[in-house]
């Protein structure tokens, strides 16, 4: 039996925009950008990246933004320039990321600036923060101007949706639709939090109960007792049964 209770509805994300996440790798110094909440979650929880949150809102259509990856340099490049993609992937060591498909789209009135640092394996950084763009040259970065555009700053943090799920299983692993006739032998709780591209969180709390099928077994036991001594008889030879009593023990 699986039940879901305590569900708080979240606000539905707009179909015309998506949030862009920024992550930082303290080992390589690289910043990674992605609209994929799952990629953001996996990299920040299992691969050593630090999540820096949503940095801008991008349209879901418009001028395509491509992500390239250089395995020798261990960094990524973001561009809307198809010629740049063609040149860099033709013998310069760069590969098309995301299977060559657009990673997200450029469009809107807010410029997204790109800077380049030759001393950091040719890393590129994107930012909508004009102050960050103006300060980074002091640390060896070269300004490359506005390379794409955003709809605006990220929306206010989304709502939190909580799901409480109860799963009943037999001790053999089968899902139970009813626990009648079973005895609960253990219980465990697991909590998983996921975040979509709009920052809306879903917290799923799953309680798993393990049940054992109760089986009734009947045994008939006969005890012969000497009524004079009260001792149990191993043999009734030479004795006559005087009376008989029956008792039920559960």
UniProtKB/TrEMBL annotation:
Question: InterPro entries, alphabetically?
Answer: DUF5648 (IPR043708)
Give one Pfam family: DUF5648
Q: Which residues form the DUF5648 domain?
A: 20-151
**Entry protein name:** Membrane protein
The source organism is Lactococcus termiticola
Recite the lineage of the species: Bacteria, Bacillati, Bacillota, Bacilli, Lactobacillales
